[in-house]
Amino acid sequence: MRKDKFLIIGASGQIGTELTESLRNLYSTEQVIASDIRAPHNEAAIAPFEVLDICDAKALANVVQKHQITQIYHLAAILSAKGEANPLQSWNINMQGLLNVLEIAKEKKLHRIYFPSSIAVFGPNTPSPAPQDTVMQPLTVYGISKAAGENWCAYYHKKYGVDVRGLRYPGLIGYKSLPGGGTTDYAVDIYHKALAQEPFECFLNADTKLPMMYMADAIRATIELMHAPTELIKIHHAYNVAAMSFAPKDIVKSVRKYKPDLEVSYKPDFREQIAKSWVDDFDDKAAQNDWNWKPEYDLDTMTQDMLKKLPQYFDFSINTEETIVS
Ligand code: NAD
Ligand code: AKB
Question: Which ligand ends up closest to the CA of 167?
Answer without folding.
Answer: 1
